[in-house]
Amino acid sequence: MQDAQQPNDLSAPSPLERRTLLRGAAVGAALAGSGLAFGARAQDAAAAPKLHTLADLPYAVDALEPVIGKRIMELHHGKHHAAYVKGLNTALEKYPMLAAQDVETVLRNLERVPEDVRTAVRNHGGGHANHTMFWQIMAPKAGGAPTGELADALTSTFGDFARFQEAFNKAGAGQFGSGWVWLTLAQGGKLAVESTANQDTPLSLGREVIMGNDVWEHAYYLTYENRRADYLTAWWKVVNWPAVTARYAAAKARMKG
């Protein structure tokens, strides 16, 4: 006859552990149904969440001067962006299966994020994704104009590159309060200029982000004060067109897939 299980048998889960596992399984099932689990096992929902991290700038902190000053970059990247990363990790502490996904995937499926953290993910996740893109599409000794397929697409949509710049600057200057101005790609391959408030991203609206400029005051105020239009005009001198063109090609490929 087998021995009766002893109360201190560590192989048997405690009532608290059983409740934790059941809660994790329920979260995993919900996320699996939402399309955000991507094959992860339900029991993995009780595991420690993956942490999003703040990547280093791809250039020196003063490399974009005089367009974007060193002190702005120190505050913008080291303080503001870092705060969004911290806020996103805090929001996803109890949803490790969500935390395991890249932030753009989560934002593309924002309506499926649990309601109790959806606003925090929208704000902090958007801030993280938007700024990650922002640092990558700028470079020292950059600017000029795009070439190749992106240049052709801009000309087809806006008439020429100068008209695209004019539309982009107008949308950025006209964004009331904090926000972003974007070049986006919609289903069907249509390019558009649009703006969003706060840290909202067109990814959550089903569009691809080709490029974007941050028009929060923290992005420019130390240098340009209240002259947002001057900042928007100067910013073209640091746009990394090879990086933007690569984003355009990748966005088109995703839509075809």
Provide the gyration radius in Å.
22 Å
Binned strand content: 5-15%
Shape: globular
Unreliable runs: 1-30, 37-45
Write down the secondary-structure element order.
Answer: HHHHHHHEEEHHH
Q: Can you count the helices? A: 10
**What order do the strands of the largest sheet run in, or round the barrel if closed?**
2-1-3
Give the CATH class of the domain at 148-256: Alpha Beta
CATH superfamily heading of the domain at 148-256 = Iron/manganese superoxide dismutase, C-terminal domain
CATH topology of the domain at 148-256: minor pseudopilin epsh fold
Averaged pLDDT, please?
A: 87
CATH level-two architecture of the domain at 148-256 = 3-Layer(bab) Sandwich
Give helix % range.
Answer: 40-55%
Distance between the termini: 60 Å
Number of strands: 3
The biggest beta sheet is recorded as: 3 strands, antiparallel
Structural class computed from helices and strand pairing: mainly alpha
